[in-house]
Design a protein that fits this description.
single chain; 167 residues; mainly beta; Immunoglobulin-like; 2 domains; 10-stranded mixed sheet; 10 strands
Length: 167
Amino acid sequence: MTAIATSSLDGALDRAGWIALSGKSRLLALGLLTGLGLTPGFAAAGDELQVTSARVPASDEIGIDLPLVMTIRNDAAEADAILRVRCPFANFSVRHTVDRGEGAPAMREVKSIPVPGSKTIELTRDGYHVMLLQTRQKLVDGEKFTCAVVFQKAGTKETEVQISRTP
């Protein structure tokens, strides 16, 4: 029996695991993943979830970390969660919340960002948000990019992100 290696980030086959599979095993693995709804764009509840008003601040610097904020409307009765975000202008992304426990507020990494069922939520700098780490280029006011927001149930949502001087 051939084992399938998976990435802890989003459940996709990792490169080493994929390379280790033979031709027939690859087809079988791909078929299984497709059947399980683990391919990008799969959307059992996807049409009931919309991402809007996604934006990052403009910056003349390269290699910095910037917050990505957005509005998410979940018309599905059941909750979902953001597992990962991929943007072409950042090397990594991390999901954060702001911890307001003892002392000064501090960002804390979270495994996923909950999206309650039948609700609209705002990801903001002072609450849940996504930090885009190590930007690869200057981000010019008015430009737009497409980022992939990966949800636990709704799958991958290609999302337009506006770069703006104002938050």
